[in-house]
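Hello again,

I reread your note about wanting to compare the complex against the isolated chains. To keep things tidy I'm splitting this into two emails, and this first one only covers the full assembly. Below are the input lines as submitted, including protein chains and any nucleic acid or small-molecule components. They are followed by the predicted structure of everything together. The single-chain runs will come separately.
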Amino acid sequence: MGATVEHDDDEPTASDEPGRHFVRSLERGLKVIEAFAVEKRPMTAVDVADSTGIPRAAVRRFLLTLTDLGYTRYDGRAFALTPRALQLGYSYLVSSPLSAVAQPHVEELLKRAQKALSKVSILDGGVAVRDQNEIAYVAYARGTSIFRLNISQGSRFPAWITSTGRVLLAVLDDDELEESLARTTLKSYTAATLRNCEELRSAILTARKQGWCVVDQEFEEKLTAFSVPLKDQNGRTVAALNLSTIHEPDRSPYESLLLEQMRATAARIEEDLRLVQP
Amino acid sequence: MGATVEHDDDEPTASDEPGRHFVRSLERGLKVIEAFAVEKRPMTAVDVADSTGIPRAAVRRFLLTLTDLGYTRYDGRAFALTPRALQLGYSYLVSSPLSAVAQPHVEELLKRAQKALSKVSILDGGVAVRDQNEIAYVAYARGTSIFRLNISQGSRFPAWITSTGRVLLAVLDDDELEESLARTTLKSYTAATLRNCEELRSAILTARKQGWCVVDQEFEEKLTAFSVPLKDQNGRTVAALNLSTIHEPDRSPYESLLLEQMRATAARIEEDLRLVQP
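Full-complex prediction:
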C-alpha cells in the first residue's frame, strides 16, 4: 500500500458495521465532537477517550484532524470546540424550513397570549422536535416575565418529562411507544414527577386522546408547560408547539383560552410549512 | 486484509493530508453535513457530490453512514439532516461558556438601552465570534421593535461587512489583517457599501484605533450596527458585542450613550467570564 498510512479505525469490522457502506471513522469523529456537549468543557485526548470509549490513539488522530479543519483548537493542554462546530448544527436549522417558519409565529403567540391572559405569567414558547429519547428546540422565544428559563434554540431535554416530548411520544404507534418506554429511565425532578412507567404511559395516552399535553410542576417547581402537535403537509406530527407559564393553583380560568391560541398558531405554522414544502 | 472493506477515501494521500494523523473520511463526512447549509434543502447523493466535489460513491457511503447514525434521514428520494445534527453545533454552545454567560447580559442591555434611548429603534443585540472570514452569533436577542432581522443564535455573515467582524479583524496583527483582506471578496450590498480593499482597511484601522465600530447602512438600507470588543481573562479580544438600530440621519444625540451602555455590558460579560474561567 506504498506510502499510505493505515488507520485501524477506518477499517470497518463485522461487529460494529451496520452495512458495507459504513464509515466508522465518521461515526467516531462525530462522537468526539459530541463528547464536548456531555462534558461541557475543554478536554484532553485522554478525557475524550474516557468519555467516548474510543481508544486514545484514535481519539488523538480525530482531535488533530478536527484541529486541522478548524472545528477544535488546542492550547497545548486541552482541546476545545470552535464556532466552526456551530456551523454543523446551523446546517440543520437552515436546511429545515421548520425553524425559520416557526420562529416569528412563536414570538407572535407569546405577545398575543400574554395580552389575552394578563393574570398568567407566560415564561416562554418554542417549537421542539424529537430526536430519539430527547427533544430539541428548533425555535424559541422568551416572554416578558422577569423569570427566565435556561433554554435556547438547540436546547435538549429528556422527551418523557417535557410536554413537547409527551405530545411527540403520543403519536408513536403502540409498539414504538412501548419500545421507547422500555428505553426510558425515569428520574425524580420534583415531588410531582411521575414515579413509574405505568403513570407515564397513562399520561402519554391522555395526551394522545385529547391532542394536547400539560406537564405541571413535574420538571420544575412552579413551572407549567403546555404543548400541541404540529403536523406536516401529510398530516404527520413532526414537532410540538410549547408555552410555559408560572404555575397557578387553578388552571381552569385560562387553560382553554391558552390552548385555543396555541392551536391557532399551530395552524398558521402548518399553513406556512405547506407553502414552503408543497 | 481478509473480510474488511477498502474505503479509498479513508486512505490519506500526500496531496490532501496535512499530517500523518489526518483522517480524510472525517473531513469529508463533515463537508457532507455542511453542504446542507449551503444548499438549504434536502439533497440526493448526486446533489451533495456536485456541491462538495467529493466522488458520488464516497458521498453515498457517507450519507448512508449518517443515516445509520441518525444525523440524516432518507425518504427514498433525497437525504435531509435531522435534529441530531443540531446536537453537533449545540456541543459548541454548551462547552463554550461565552454563549451562556453572554445571553442574559445581551437581553438586559437591550432593555436598558431602549429605555435610555426612547427615540431610537433598537432592533437587536448579540455576541458574535469570528470563524475565518465569517462571524457567527453565539448569543442573540431581539428588541421590542416591530421590525425584525432574520438572525438567530448560529447565524453567520461575512466578517468584513459586519460591525462585529470589523472589531474582530481590527485585533489581528498587521500581517494577519493583510492576509485576511487578501482572502476577502467585496460585494456591493447597498449604495453605502465600501467599494474596495483600501476603504475596508481604513475602516478596520479606525475600529482598531477607537476601540469600537459602526457600520451604517452598508449591509442593509436603514440599518446601523455598533460593536465593541469582548476580552477574555488574558485581555485577548475573543468576541464582539453588537447592537443594531434603525438608521438615524444624525447619530450624534445618542451614539456616545449607546456605546457607553455597550461598554458597561461588555465589562459585565468579561467579569462573569473570569468567574467561569479563572
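For quick reference: The first strand of chain A starts at residue 72 and ends at 74.

B.
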